[in-house]
Known about the structure:
Layout: E1 8-15, E2 18-26, E3 32-44, E4 60-64, E5 69-71, E6 77-79, E7 93-98, E8 105-117, H1 122-128
Amino acid sequence: FVPAKVTCQVEETFESGVKSDVTIRNTGNIDAYIRAAVIINFVSDDGKVLAAAPQEGTDYVIVWSSHGWEKGSDGYWYHKKAVAPDNLTSVLVESASAISAPRGYRLDIQIVASAIQSDPYRAVQEAWGITPVNGELSPQ
């Protein structure tokens, strides 16, 4: 008997100020549904977060993938299908980069992922309030 372990890890490329190919790996030992919060702020070198939120199209550009993910009304991005152990989700963010930032600040894009076992389906229903239909998540 091996107890279920549900964990995940964000994998991404960051080169020349561009974040790209953002995926999430199921690092657990059981199939899991994965969701992600994308948090975008201006941050100073000493870690202070600017109160004004960056505006897409004005302060940064982000290219979302159109495959395998759906944004819920709660602000999370949900990978529609469960991910097998040691496998990756489809790409969530194809690329993201800054256009401008206030003096003394830089654009900071954080991807915070969480996972939950896909079986029994009640686990995701109770934790995230979503009932899988035919094995897929469709958040409201």
